[in-house]
Design goal:
Helix content is 31%, strand content 48%. The chain is built from 4 helices and 8 strands.
Length: 248
């Protein structure tokens, strides 16, 4: 009887230990699942952003800068992006896109010129095919609406002798690559083609390739490291104040 009692007590103890281990394991699994769901929800959360954009292009065989500002949201594990922007030709375009007109047969008569100004609104969808800790590869599809304003001016007294305005729809497709070289910064590059849907010669002039390159800053990582440094500094000061000797 004593042996049977001891055996039953040992089995109960083993069952209790097994049940405790199973409960602990299930609790760990639930905790990991909740953490994974929280991380996935954070990745899927839509985020707002704002950035400047500068691109190089060629118009009438001349290199021209195109500047713009963009705002939008990222969603779906940061693999999708919707943006709305506004673009305009750089300051040098008004001086470089000069078409001298021969009012008289005399080839020395250069008294009139045309000043061209191009501006357009732009809407884009970016699909990201690759995103990891180092690399990002996206395909931007863009469509917009804009106009080209042309003013005919006298070279000497600045008087306007006429003007015209042409509207167009820029369609753009490209490839964007980004390399995160450091935790706080990286580099990017983009190349694509622009087709300006318009009547007349403007479509031929404004259609062509564009490119850009630059430096990326990652404010999330900068802010996270700053908060971590602030907490560590505050904790260090608290420890120093706690062990400092009391004055006489």
């Amino acid at each position: 009887m004593l042996l049977l009692t001891l055996l039953l007590a040992g089995q109960r103890s083993a069952y209790a230990q097994t049940d405790s281990a199973a409960i602990a394991q299930r609790a760990t699994i639930v905790k990991d699942t909740i953490s994974a769901q929280g991380a996935a929800a954070a990745q899927n959360k839509a985020r707002l952003f704002f950035n400047f954009d500068a691109r190089g292009t060629f118009i009438q065989h001349k290199h021209i800068n195109v500047f713009g500002v963009n705002a939008g949201i990222t969603f779906g594990e940061k693999r999708n992006r919707l943006t709305a922007g506004y673009y305009w030709l750089g300051y040098n375009a008004a001086r470089r896109l000069v078409n001298w007109r021969k009012i008289l047969p005399n080839p020395l008569n250069l008294s009139y010129y045309t000043a061209t100004d191009v501006r357009f609104a732009n809407f884009a969808y970016w699909h990201t095919a690759i995103r990891n800790k180092r690399w990002v590869l996206s395909t931007p599809l863009e469509i917009g609406i804009g106009n080209e304003s042309t003013r005919f001016r006298d070279l000497f007294d600045g008087a306007s002798s006429g003007s015209r305005k042409d509207y167009f729809i820029p369609l753009q497709v490209g490839v964007y690559g980004e390399y995160r070289a450091l935790r706080w910064a990286g580099i990017n590059s983009q190349i694509g083609y622009r087709n300006a849907l318009s009547s007349g010669e403007f479509r031929k002039r404004f259609s062509g390739f564009y490119y850009s390159y630059g430096i990326n800053l990652y404010p999330e990582a900068i802010w996270k490291d700053f908060k971590k440094w602030s907490r560590k500094k505050a904790k260090s000061q608290a420890v120093d104040n706690g062990v400092s000797p009391v004055g006489n």
